[in-house]
């Protein structure tokens, strides 16, 4: 099948298929005399594997390791589990960071009058040079970063 058919069958765009081939994530394909790529069912199966791994947020490097392990029938499942658990740890850290960002933005939005006046604590905090050096922590008594806030 050609690249368009492989893309449709795998759920991976033709552009990404070419990219994966260029970085060695999938092997170079057979080409016709006219230079068109020809993909096998095995190639499409590998592309589906890669797409599912990308959907789970694995990096290209992790996917390369997973593809290699998947193709190695002598592999130790521990190696696969280690990659998965490392990725879970990264995802959990990102979730905590996103939750902290959401909490900070909610706090700032609660302290913004949202009216026609120009005063806006959200913009003030974004412009605050000290905020870039420390995480913004809402404080019930003083507002953001322990500074007295005008309420």
TrEMBL record:
Keywords: Coiled coil, Cytoplasm, DNA-binding, Transcription, Transcription regulation. Signal peptide: none annotated. GO terms for molecular function: copper ion binding; DNA binding; DNA-binding transcription factor activity. Residues 1-69 form the HTH merR-type domain. InterPro entries: CueR, DNA-bd_dom_put_sf, MerR-type_HTH_dom, MerR_fam, Tscrpt_reg_MerR_DNA-bd. One of its GO terms (biological process) is positive regulation of DNA-templated transcription. SMART domains: HTH_MERR. It comes from the Bacteria. It is found in: Cytoplasm. The keyword DNA-binding applies. Its main location: cytoplasm. GO terms for cellular component: cytoplasm. Pfam families: MerR (PF00376), MerR-DNA-bind (PF09278). Residues 81-111 form a coiled coil. This is Cu(I)-responsive transcriptional regulator. It comes from Microvirga lupini.
């Amino acid at each position: 099948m050609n690249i368009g058919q492989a893309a449709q069958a795998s759920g991976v765009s033709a552009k990404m298929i070419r990219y994966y081939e260029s970085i060695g994530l999938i092997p170079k394909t057979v080409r016709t005399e006219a230079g068109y790529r020809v993909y096998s069912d095995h190639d499409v199966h590998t592309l589906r594997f890669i797409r599912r791994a990308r959907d789970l947020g694995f990096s290209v490097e992790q996917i390369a390791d997973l593809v290699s392990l998947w193709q190695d029938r002598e592999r130790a499942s521990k190696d696969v589990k280690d990659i998965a658990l490392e990725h879970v740890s990264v995802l959990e850290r990102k979730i905590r960071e996103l939750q902290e960002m959401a909490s900070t933005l909610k706090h700032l939005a609660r302290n913004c009058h949202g009216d026609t006046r120009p005063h806006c604590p959200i913009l003030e905090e974004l412009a605050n040079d000290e905020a870039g050096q420390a995480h913004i922590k809402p404080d019930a008594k003083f507002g953001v970063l322990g500074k007295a806030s005008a309420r």
